[in-house]
Amino acid sequence: MNKPIIWSIAGLDSGGGAGLSADQRAADVMDVHLCPVAASLTAQNSVAVEAVLPVSPERLEAQLAALADDLPPAVIKTGLLGGVEQLRVVTRWVDRLRARGPVALVVDPVLRATTGASFADDAMLRAYRDELLPRATVVTPNRREATRLVGDGEPAVQALELQSLGVQAVCITGGDEAGPLALDWLHSRDARGWLALPRRDARNHHGTGCCFATALAAALARGFVAADAAVLAKMLTTSGLRAGPSPGAGAGPVRPDAGFITDPTLLPALFDERRDWPLQRHPAPAVEGVYAITDSGSHAAALFDAGLRTVQLRIKRTDDEGDAAWRARLRAEIKAARRPGSTLIVNDHWREAIAMDVDFVHLGQEDLLALSSAERRELADARARGLRLGLSSHSLWELARAVAWAPDYVACGPLWPTTTKAMPWRPQGLDNLSWWAAMAPMPVVGIGGVLAPEQLVQIAACGAAAGCIVRGLAPGAVHSPEDWLQAWRSGAGMPLVVEPGWPHPSLPT
pTM for this one? Predict the structure, then answer.
């Protein structure tokens, strides 16, 4: 399979730190083919930018025309453009290429060098706002660049201002800020919040913005949506921040590590609000082995009696059911389900579960996001008092949000196509499950489309802590609880069937 192609239209750093040099290093690690297009030349070293020499519009046009038919891009990334005329060459080519088919545009608005040199006058800022940003799929300014583009304010407000210009998604990077966490504000169709990792004390950080934007562009080219692409870009860029000697007197270049994709220390948290790091540690797995889901308390009890240790009670409230009747029915189902020494998990209804002395709840992330700030504090307080929590996850950014909440387990799904619940997600498969199990800082549960014991064997052999069964353990199912228990024991004793590698996208772009 051919590698995805991205174009980087940016500046050439004569010191080899930022610009096209950084873009090439990031693209190589992301395993995409980069076409480096010089929009400007810079006379710089690791200490200072001494001159910016824009490439003429005609020469920029010639480079893009040469690439267009032979090496058409899936994504274009822009960096230092040099001037308004060069920017307009780019916008014309974006429009031409989009007339042929989809092309994403990632704009890294390089407006000022780290050393302080300005790369954009008022005319260039207007051209960004009026001409380039309205075409952008994602824009990745740092805090100072966001302020120059849309004015001062909190990153969440700046992101909204940038979106009002026509930008589809925004990631305002904060790696050059102070504080114990490196915080980037993400605002996209699918997710918003702070992408966070502990700040690294690294002398060699020249070109981080270029590296981040190129990694994000490469992830889009590989089929990831913007929110997942930002997670990958955060991981890759952080992997390249290093201590040690620099080749010059100033900061050395960021050098991403090809092993970033399977380094669990690089998985960021996605916070809705700023929090402290590190998060709580997870002791022995709260769930292990066969994990059943049922909508009947008596059936849950029968599954416990058959040898299962973990059952989730998924009780849905009907539209015509009043509060009192609903709570009475839920209480009766919970009472029927209880068995000493077994783990009963209640789906969704965490307040009712607490009131009924159930100490384990499961939430989908849409339910988590629907909570008000007060309700989130209430849930956090209940967890501090001993309430255990499981969370669903279907994508990289949902796994990052789970890291922020530090649940007792996270579910990865759907593994296979399922009709149990309508959802937009592509099947995760065993490759994503093995990645989840290797990367997540909490136990992972595989779920979705598990109809035969042979599938449960594979889940166990991917390193998951448990596997969820719904229809396969329904009353009258073909396979008995013992069949499923034996399948788990078989898989748990096997070596990994799928080694962790690159995850694949789980949501169509």
Answer: 0.96
